[in-house]
Amino acid sequence: CYRENILKTAKALVEDTKLLVSGAASSQDKLAQAAQSSANTITQLAEVVKLGAASLGSDDPETQVVLINAIKDVAKALSDLIGATKGAASKPADDPSMYQLKGAAKVMVTNVTSLLKTVKAVEDEATRGTRALEATIEYIKQELTVFQSSEVPEKTSSPEESIRMTKGITMATAKAVAAGNSCRQEDVIATANLSRKAVADMLTACKQASYHPDVSEEVRERALRFGTECTLGYLELLEHVLMV
Question: 212 in the Ramachandran plot: left (φ > 0), alpha (ψ -120 to 50) or beta?
Fold first, then answer.
């Protein structure tokens, strides 16, 4: 029942996505209608996904987290898409903002597809871990793209905070190695959830610290490079666990 509702609402959201993209080239009224429609649809989708997660029961919290993370990714992608649509409104077809809009729409569709794959995998215990890991790998890649962009973080943090956040990577690495050895679905799901948070926290802290007022241009470049290399190394580790 929940799966059908999720599928139906997700399809409606994809249609909203198309309207948002086409709305950038049309009137402000049409754009506003598309934005309002997508906001309503994402609220409905979040509700049915939460009901689906609740139906799993409290004895499987890690799989519940996988589902909730999937809808959070869709919501974030929609927010970014609406922002990109706003920036591209009334601009010519060759304007850079139009390319950003197309990129945001692509991420949106990718995340909706990922959500649907996750919902399907939840019904099959044998594939839950694999799917959770695939979704985490996709999420980390998207976070790395944001990290590598020229966008300056809204706030800065101390280098000490960045160092503190690397401890999460160490813990997640140990968990990933253990999951690769045990090959138990629940271990793989827990690894996927932990990895997602650890890498996202590290990337945020690294970028914020690299833009601290006391940090030189050279040190910033090195910090950003090492943040990227750390993430790529961790992605490689997760790919190995997925293969195993």
Answer: beta
Q: Indicate the pLDDT class of residue 1, thresholds 50, 70 and 90.
A: low
Structural domains present in the chain: 1-123 (1.20.1420.10), 126-243 (1.20.1420.10)
Coil/strand/helix, residue 27: coil
Angle among Cα 229, 233, 239 to the nearest 5 degrees reads 145
* pLDDT digit string, tens, across residues 2-58: 788 898 999 999 998 888 888 776 777 788 888 889 999 999 999 999 998 888 877
Q: Are 33 and 8 in contact (CB under 8 A)?
A: no
Helices (H), strands (E): how many in the chain?
8, 0
